[in-house]
Amino acid sequence: MVMPHQEQPSDVTDVSSCVRAHCGAKQLRSSVELQEYVVRDVKTPCIPNGAMPLNNQVAGHMHGKGKTKLGFLQWHDNAVLKPIQSPPRGQREVEFYQKVFDVNCRNSVFINMRPLVPNYLGVIECPEVPGIHYLKLEDVTRKFVKPCIVDLKMGPITYDPEAPPDKVAREKAKYPSLAEVGFRLTGMRIYKHSIKKYVTYDKQYGISLDEHMMRDQGLGVFFNKAEGLRKDAINAILAKLQEIENWFMSQSELRFFACSILIVYEGCLSTLGNSCHQNGMNGAGVSLDQDASPTHGMCNGIVQQNGTPDSSAIQSKEVGGADRHLVDVRMIDFAHVFHTDQHDENFLFGLRKVIGYLQQLL
Q: I want to staple 213 with a disulfide (CB 3.0 to 4.6 A). Which of 80, 122, 217, 297 is the partner?
């Protein structure tokens, strides 16, 4: 296979002013402050008042684990707090979000990207964990009653042009099938109707899937093929993926490395009534989770938040009006975004492989 050409583009550098965070925490203002971010190697940092570990997290750094012990948190207003990495990665991601959501932006590439990423709500520092700073982002799973979630890291090249040789070697060794599959399944969480519990699959499960297994044992499992393939969700998600592909084909300014697509669909069907609320149990490898998802409306086939329908994700209605579903698809993780003058063939290769697998499932 001919791998996508990799050039040496320059960094994203422009910084727009931060959006004020309405949470009483300290709001950062300048790129100088961003450059001073140091994610400290602490034992286990305390969780800020008003926050808790992110319940619906399927991939990425988790609180209390890893080198820094820092992980995603759920803020008191239901936003997501993402710890900012040390420079240059964290600074690059903050600046990227600021450019996309800058109210004075006139660049159509960034403006047209806004619906494709979580809403940016600012940068905060909580007094309980001084020196640690967080991106405050929209929780795209919040609109769902029983969100089924998968994180797909896009492209056969997951290291950026500035990566040292040892980093390149580690990335290549992580997933030998990546060149053929085109993306890596880094985690997924599915609501299983038969057992009325969530089942979680971690990154090791994803790494075990080669190009011949990804369709049925990866994405097929995610869309509940064993209990009844969710063709409704697949069709709606394909429409969202097409929007992302169209955006990539419309721009030749940005390249994305180690960027993921987060796919969510509603797992609570109208036929389940209120039986979605069950306890879970632990298992080995593939795990059964405690069913701790927040409920935002009754599980009656109409997904609501605070009593009103959510319109930011796709909703569709089958003939007869009895069955409704909801999906959302967003790009996430922007610590490795670089300027270019060509289409991002690396990301597009992975995206088109996902689309191809989903089309084969139908």
A: 217
The listed range with the strongest mean pLDDT (248-252, 281-285, 291-295) is: 248-252
- Per DSSP, what are the bridge partners of residue 197? 192
Helix axes of 231-250 and 345-361: crossing angle, nearest 10 degrees: 160
CB-CB contact of 209 with 189 (8 Å) = no
Distances (CA, A) of 138 to 79, 222, 287, 299: 5, 23, 27, 23
Q: Which amino acid is at 39?
A: V
Q: Which pLDDT does position 68 carry in this prediction? A: 65
Pairing between strand 80-83 and 73-74?
Answer: antiparallel
Compute the distance between CA of residue 148 and CA of residue 58 in angstroms, rounded to an integer. Answer: 10
Establish whether the linkage from the previous residue to 115 is cis, with ω within 30° of 0: no
CA-based nearest residue to 148, from 73, 232, 64, 79: 232
Q: Are the beta carbons of 241 and 250 closer than 8 angstroms? A: no
Q: What is the pLDDT of residues 71-115, one digit of tens each?
A: 888 888 999 999 998 889 999 999 999 999 999 999 999 999 999
Rounded Cα–Cα distance for residues 67 and 47 (Å): 17
Do 247 and 112 contact (CB within 8 A), yes or no? Answer: yes
C-alpha triplet 141, 56, 90: angle, nearest 5°: 85
Q: Using CA atoms, how far apart are residues 259 and 20, in angstroms rounded to an integer?
A: 26
pLDDT score recorded for residue 66 = 65
Picking from 324, 328, 273, the residue whose alpha carbon sits closest to that of residue 295 is 273
